[in-house]
Write a structure and sequence with these properties.
It contains 4 helices and 4 strands, in the order E-H-E-E-H-E-H-H. Strands 1-4-2-3 form a 4-stranded antiparallel β-sheet, with helices on one face. About 40% of the residues lie in helices and about 25% in strands. Helix 1 packs across helix 2. With about 160 residues, it is of the alpha+beta class.
Amino acid sequence: NTFAWNLTGREEFQAGVGMLAGQVAARLRRHRMKCTGVALQIRDPDFRDLSRQKRLEVPTCLGREIARAAMELAEGCWTMERPVRALTEEEASVQQTLFSGGGEEKRARLERLARTTDAIRAKYGPGAIGMASEPRDAARERHAPPPSGAGRGED
C-alpha cells in the first residue's frame, strides 16, 4: 500500500500497519482461514525495499494479532524516525482449520466482533466503522446510506 505521504514516526507507522492488518484479517475471515505467519515489506522514499517474515505461535484471523507481529518485525529492522513510502503486509501462510487451545472463549468473541465489523463495512462501506488509530482518508469516510426508514425518527 503506497501512502499519499511518507509515514514518519512510530505513531504513523503503527497506524499504517494496523490499517493493513485489518485488511489482511478481513480477507482471511472472508475465506474462513487463519494465517500462521506474517510477512512485512517496507519501502523507503528512495524505493529501497526491506522484507521480513515471522511465524506466529497461534494461527489467527485477528487484525490486532497480525499488526502486533508486523510491528515486532518492523522494530527489529527499521528505525521508526525514517520515512516510509509504502508498506506491504500479508499472511505468510494460511490454513483452514479450527483453533484449539487456551483462551478459546475470548478468541471466539474477538473473531465474532471482527466478523460483525466486516459485515458493517460490507453493508455501509469501508468508512462506516474502523479503529480510532487508522489513518483518516476522506474517500473512506463516505459510506452507504442507512436502510430505508432507518434514522428518520419514525416510530
